[in-house]
Amino acid sequence: MDAPVENNVKPVRRSKEDKKVIRKQLKASHTLLKHEGISTAPQPTKSLVVANGGLGNGVSREELSAALKQMGEVDKLIMHPNKPYAFVKYRSEESARKAHINLNGEKLQCGENSVTLYLSYVDSVTCEEEASVPLPEGLVLVEDFVCSEEEALLLAAIDWSSTNTDVTAQKALKHRRVKHYGFEFRYDNNNVDKDKPLPAGIPQECLPVLERCVKNQHIDIMPDQLTVNQYESGQGIPPHVDTHSAFEDTIMSLSLGAKTVMEFRHPDGRLVAVVLPERSLLVMKGESRFLWTHGITPRKFDMVPACDPQSFGDTTPDLRTSSNLTLSKRGTRTSLTFRKIRNEPCCCAFPSACDSQGAPPAPSPPPPPSLPCCHADAALLEEQYVHRVYDAIASHFSSTRHSPWPRVCHFLCSLPPGSVLADVGCGNGKYLGVNLELSAVGCDRSSALVQICAERGFQAFVSDALSVPLRAASCDACISIAVIHHFSTQERRLAAVQELVRLLKPGGRALIYVWAFEQEYNKQRSKYLKDHNKELPENHNPAENSPEESQEPQGKSSVHSSSHSEDNYRTVDNNQHVTDDKLSVHTNRTAFETKDLLVPWHLKDGKKRVEGDSGEGGKKDQQKEKSKKTSRSKAALDCNPATSPGFDSNIFSHSSLDTIAATHSSKPIPGCDTSQTCSSALKSESEIIPAPVFHRYYHVFQQGELEQLCAQQTGVTVQSSYHDQGNWCVILEKALNR
Ligand SMILES: O=C(O)CCC(=O)C(=O)O
Ligand SMILES: [Fe+2]
Ligand SMILES: [Zn+2]
């Protein structure tokens, strides 16, 4: 009797438990229907609602995900904030059945507490609260594809310290570092040398992961090429389509170490930003691989859904419209991109993007400019990398130039009433209204900036600083603020000073400011450098107290091509050493390493200005201008940047938007890189036109260099010279006897 008792009792007891579970499960599904309007399905499906498994029950995503994943591969897991349930969709119905059988009535430990899970089938998993957008066709994101241990193992397998960089074609690109296994991907021709395999194949540690990829049908054949990209916070990769002729259809990218946001763009303008969580696998096939570009905007923060819903299956939260977003600081992300080398030409269904089918390669950026060796070259360089750039960025530039600088104001206020002042290179005219007792006139090479001066009621005209159409000896004073550093030869800088001297009356004075090579002086770092460590989200408003205030605290100085190729400007090594005469692109907010360089300007979006509006709006504008004019007289007394009058910030004129559109759609213009967007992927309005990056040529002055330049002029004396927030400054006086 003994043995059968045990056999008999257990099934009875189990069925009692089963009944209890079923009762509770039914109760849970009634509650879901009554309180949440969720109806459960009588037949097995791939999707389940997990009662008691919600964030509202204190269950974390990781805890639930770990339990669910034991039953099979999870396609999506949706957890709404404060809800007492979660939804899970498995990749197969079999996995869902397994979860239904094994997890129903099971206790899940959540920190110190535990909850009992009740699972019911649902027909579909929808996410009504979050606006979502479809993922590009063919794109799949598999969360938690590797566990933390595997992640650590894979990261350890990548040896960045290796000195033999040829084995894995290791490269320190300016905006990320890369390592290739199997075959080198060459950024100069966007292709691979198929008959030159690298000595190092795909590391052994990757094989279990790849086998899982094949088993789960993410890829048909084992990949033979691996590119490891490592992105520090603030780094990224330009939008590109992986060359069709180089690789087969499926491309898989594993995200390790940190999450990021990858942006996918369709040629028709659609943009889908996808959060790639740490340890997730991104699979690009078909249209998403062949037609859509993918890229990562270099920035230090991303906007991600606040409740971290991560994968939404074949949709993704619409990061542009969602109201439930939070800032997520970027960490160091290492991605492993696995590809299969293609040995036959590509015959995909997307000929417009297919190099095998004759599609032209993406336009490459203009070649990097060199230091000019003659007058004509210098004029051309300045035309392309100074004049055109200021015209294109005029509105945005002006919106960041609010406050007159105290020592410039002091100079202007020291001039006797009635003095004639010429501001040569007056920009948006911010110094023209400082002292209303003066008879002030400005000139600038940029007609867009002169237009802004005119709109503000200032006297200004378009002119080159080397030949100002004013009579000799007609000015009591001249100022040249942040202008002469844009001349690209010593002769032209000398000529610019000479022109100022020509304009001065005998006894007249000129104030000159140029950007200093030394951004640290008397142990004081300039504001420009000090802002370097400020980690701020995109579109931080710039500091306002440097004439050379730069807008970028994020180190976003990268220059990417719109193709896959890396920085076509000369890529400076990590120490920014110059090895040829090509101009290097400066990283904003860092110390200068060279004296002649290109400084990026990240054009940012703003309100569009209604131009030519003669109605009410126009009148209001006039009134606004009037009140500004009144406040300008106050500025004569008040030179504190914090209290002096500012102008409307962030005003875009049509002209600059037109310029952006034009530069984006047509062939690239020198000085402008339209491929690197700086508009946040999350701003809806600005999304249509990616904001380009422009490069301005500068010659930064070393200590004593400006004085030397002035000393070469006859008939002038340097009255004083000083360093002011990263600028070298002199006050010149023209001799009385001239
Ligand atoms: O970092 C990634 O996930 C993508 C890398 C990539 O697109 C590439 O190397 O082609
Ligand atoms: Fe790629
Ligand atoms: Zn193709």
Automatic annotation (TrEMBL):
Residues 534-584, 607-640 are annotated as: Disordered. The keyword rRNA processing does not apply. Gene3D superfamilies: 3.30.70.330, Alpha-ketoglutarate-dependent dioxygenase AlkB-like, Vaccinia Virus protein VP39. It is an enzyme of class 2 (transferase). Residues 222-342 form the Fe2OG dioxygenase domain. Residues 607-625 have a biased composition (Basic and acidic residues). Residues 46-124 form the RRM domain. One of its GO terms (molecular function) is metal ion binding. It holds the Pfam family Methyltransf_11. It catalyses: 5-(carboxymethyl)uridine(34) in tRNA + S-adenosyl-L-methionine = 5-(2-methoxy-2-oxoethyl)uridine(34) in tRNA + S-adenosyl-L-homocysteine. Its cofactor is Fe(2+). GO terms for biological process: tRNA methylation; tRNA wobble uridine modification. GO terms for cellular component: cytoplasm; nucleus. Belongs to the alkB family. Catalyzes the methylation of 5-carboxymethyl uridine to 5-methylcarboxymethyl uridine at the wobble position of the anticodon loop in tRNA via its methyltransferase domain. Catalyzes the last step in the formation of 5-methylcarboxymethyl uridine at the wobble position of the anticodon loop in target tRNA. Has a preference for tRNA(Arg) and tRNA(Glu), and does not bind tRNA(Lys). This is tRNA (carboxymethyluridine(34)-5-O)-methyltransferase. It comes from Champsocephalus esox.
